[in-house]
Amino acid sequence: MSLPLKELINIGAQQLRDAGVADADIDAKELLCYMQGLDRVGLMLHWQDVMQDNQCEAYFDLIARRAARIPLQHITGRQEFMGLPFDVNDKVLIPRQDTETMVEDALELAEKGTLRGQEYSGSLRKGGDVLDLCCGSGAIGISLAKLSSKLHVTCSDLSREALEVARRNAALNGCKGVKFTESDMFAAFKGKLVNKKFDLIISNPPYIPPAVIEGLEPEVRDHEPMMALDGGEDGLDFYRVIAAGAPDHMKKGAVLMLEIGHDQRAAVKELLRGTGRFDRIIGLTDLAGRDRIIVAQLAPKTK
Ligand code: GLN
User: Fold this and answer.
1) Are 134 and 203 spatial neighbours (Cβ–Cβ below 8 Å)?
2) Which pTM does this prediction carry?
């Protein structure tokens, strides 16, 4: 069997559609690009090619895996985030475009001392130490290190396997200065002699209630690591730990930035407010206009 490339992709896309894959056309093209080592422009240049028997077979093998609802990124091993390449596997959450907004906000804060154009002073403007808590693939911390030379980034995660991926991603992006710490939340940052403090603590922690996870697409539910998704009964477990623990690890004027689920703004703000340790607690939306980020500043000591 030999087939024109265009036809091959059409058949692949149809098989993905039949399997209920949302972005069937895009994924059918991406898999062809991956197989041939082409980018999307290269694909267009080869649009008239005829694919030989063995190529068709290899392509349909990839299509079959995607039709089984294995995430595209687990097949290709890659996801782009902030325009940078990231290796991914089933030990880390696949970085989401929604999370880029928070990274852009952090970069604005570091570079200009503003947040969406509004003054939001903090110690970050002079550069500083950043902790990416629950770093997974390292998407957040590594992009910050890559895109702002002022920032000294530490990525931490409970999962050793995730940290291995994150380390690879730092190397892939030439970020030699990024540090990695295996830690159950803040555990590794406090001790009798040292209590490590940061200018920015940024985190996209697990925040989905298990009951909601059950109803998610099979790509997420069956293939992404449960420990990166599961935020406990009400989805807020990690925000509770962060609200209680973060202040002890924040320098004067430091900022906390958290990604949240679209319906968690009020609850997370309340958790932070309840500690009495944070000021200027604000919610920000993502590109789709949904609540996505909470920012807060460490309150000055009142004494
Ligand atoms: N920080 C990583 C990301 O945003 C992983 C988040 C997680 O595992 N919950 O992609």
Assistant:
1) yes
2) 0.95
